[in-house]
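Why does residue order matter? Because the sequence determines the fold. Keep that principle in mind as you read this record.
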Amino acid sequence: MPVTSPIDPTCCPLCGQSNQCAGQVERATGIKQPPCWCNEASFGADLLARVPEQLRRKACICPACVQAAAV
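Structure:
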C-alpha cells in the first residue's frame, strides 16, 4: 500500500513553497489577517489545470507561480 503524505495547505501545490495564504495564517495563529493577496490575483484555467487532482481546493497556489503563469 503506498504511503501518502498529508496535504499541507500552507504550501503551493505546484512548487512546494509557501503560498502566503492569509487564511491559513489566520487559522494557524488565530490572529485576524488582512485580505489575502489572492483576492486581487487572476488564476487562469491553464494554471489551475496544472494543480494535481488530489490537491485541488486543498492548497493555494503561491504568488510566484501565479506571476510566472501570467508572463
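The helical segments are 22-29, 45-49, 63-70.
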